[in-house]
Amino acid sequence: MEAIWLYQFRLIVIGDSTVGKSCLIRRFTEGRFAQVSDPTVGVDFFSRLVEIEPGKRIKLQIWDTAGQERFRCRSITRAYYRNSVGGLLLFDITNRRSFQNVHDWLEEARSHVQPHSIVFLLVGHKCDLEAQRQVTRQEAEKLAGAYGMRYVETSARDAINVEHAFTELTRDIFALVRSGDITIQEGWEGVKSGFVPNVVHSSEEVTKSDRRCLC
Amino acid sequence: SRVSRSQDVPPEVLRQREVKWLDMLGHWDKWIMKRFNKVRLRCQKGIPPALRGRTWLYLSGGKVKKEQNQGKFQELDHQSGDPKWVDVIEKDLHRQFPFHEMFVSRGGHGQQDLFRVLKAYTLYRPEEGYCQAQAPIAAVLLMHMPAEDAFWVLVQICEKYLPGYYSPGLEAIQLDGEILFALLRRISPVAYRHLEKHKIDPILYMTEWFMCAFSRTLPWASVLRVWDMFLCDGVKIIFRVGLVLLKCMLGTREKLKACQGQYETMELLRAIQPRYMQEAFLVREILEIPVTARELEREHHSQLKRWKKNRGELNFKSPPRMHGTRIIMLAEPPRRQDLQQNPTILV
């Protein structure tokens, strides 16, 4: 039986090849670190429930795609960006090039996401490899600030900030949904209500019906 | 480990098969031109493991290509590749079948050969470069043959069997996705309607299946049996495997009750039940799917027309697809000396 959730958010994870997208998602959804992971071909997806406040659960649907430019085609990018409400934009702190490409990833996202928008979080990944660092925290924070994003440094290997990154993004989106800045729309997969029909918007009401359902 | 015994064929049957295959390999062009149905039947039964590598080299036309381009691989092997490609390839070397003993050690022979083959391809076709989905294909080949042979079979797969799959933009794969979907309508109307209703673009579930020729999807014994048939008969085998999996997973209303949504459906297709992928079951089902090369071509034609109408001309022109070993042999006829065997083990 499926656990009961208030909302379902669809998130995407983007960034250059080998910055560790799949490993980060696996650490978050499966709780373990894969020493090696096959390069992603096409798209892959995962899900997990997150409790953002006691009794308030959000189901995250996380889409992973191939980082190699070759796999970016219209059909994939459209399906991928258009139907997402949030995204983690990853770079590898030990790979300067992957940081320089952050602009390109944001540009691509912006051009495909219309008429919706995506809440992005900038993630400096592999922060366990401090000795090989090529991107300072300050410059990453500056870049994130320029685009109005938060910045987090994570490590899938040492499980640093992985929960935090996903939870923070989920909370930010939840706040925007609660304030009405993001609304559920028919035919859009970004945010879905866990209740049918989609008439419950106030979180208080949802919580009540949540409890009812559990009885 | 995913690598298991290929099949439970009794040893004496296996010995008999090996004798038959050695005879075929010894008179290859005659068998292909005059008794192709028998060759096909034997590929469907499974190529004896000891002769699989050599047979794949012959089936794909890689043997002829290699003989007619002697010294080419060595020449490419000695060049240093474009750093743009070398960089990506190097990052992928330890990520192909990492639990296979051949690829387990960093910088070991398996990974070195994988690098040589993939780098050689980027020099052979600089306009194509390297696509990450080529690595598992090359790795499967290297488990069966030396680097030079694997290179030429890879060339044949990329240019004859699956042309355009690894080019930028994924046009050929998207087109085949549309073809697969159109064929599904006839093979399993229930699955077709479900995917249509939930607007699930084929590219979302078939990209890895097709680009890696199921090498990352199926259990190992099934991968080998599928490749035996694929290299003999061409891409229709790949389509048939896709159709079998879709039909088995989404083909009845009861099964669909449990997956009312786009994501739920994709989750189901990502975790295919092992019994549908089991060697004997899968091969039987593949042989029963009524999809021929001719139908594929017809569907290709109409999907291409639709594509051009909706999206304009293709950006990457690929050579025409060749449906199997017989057509390849007609297109690239062997000289007498090309089919001579150079056994590595003398009995």
UniProtKB/TrEMBL annotation, chain A:
> Which InterPro entries does its entry note?
P-loop_NTPase, Rab39, Rab_GTPases_membrane_traffic, Small_GTP-bd, Small_GTPase
CDD domains registered for this protein in UniProt = Rab39
Q: How does it sit in the membrane?
A: Lipid-anchor
A biological process term (GO) from this entry? autophagy
Give the UniProt subcellular location, in the record's own words. Autolysosome membrane; Cell membrane; Cytoplasmic vesicle membrane
Keywords of the record, alphabetical order, are: Autophagy, Cell membrane, Cytoplasmic vesicle, GTP-binding, Lipoprotein, Membrane, Methylation, Nucleotide-binding, Prenylation
Q: Where's it mainly located?
A: membrane
Q: What are the GO cellular component annotations?
A: autolysosome membrane; cytoplasmic vesicle membrane; plasma membrane
Q: Name one GO molecular function term.
A: GTP binding
The text of the family note is: Belongs to the small GTPase superfamily. Rab family.
Q: What is this protein called?
A: RAB39B, member RAS onco family
UniProtKB/TrEMBL annotation, chain B:
Specify the superkingdom. Answer: Eukaryota
Signal sequence, start to end: none
List, in alphabetical order, the Gene Ontology terms for molecular function in this entry: GTPase activator activity; small GTPase binding
- Show the Gene3D superfamilies listed in the entry: putative rabgap domain of human tbc1 domain family member 14 like domains, Ypt/Rab-GAP domain of gyp1p, domain 1, Ypt/Rab-GAP domain of gyp1p, domain 3
> GO cellular component terms?
plasma membrane
Q: Which UniProt keywords apply?
A: GTPase activation
What positions does the domain Rab-GAP TBC occupy? 46-234
Which Pfam families does its entry note? RabGAP-TBC
Q: Which PANTHER family would you find in this protein's record?
A: RAB GTPASE-ACTIVATING PROTEIN 1-LIKE, TBC1 DOMAIN FAMILY MEMBER 10A
Name assigned to this protein? TBC1 domain family member 10A
**Species whose genome carries this gene:** Tetraodon nigroviridis
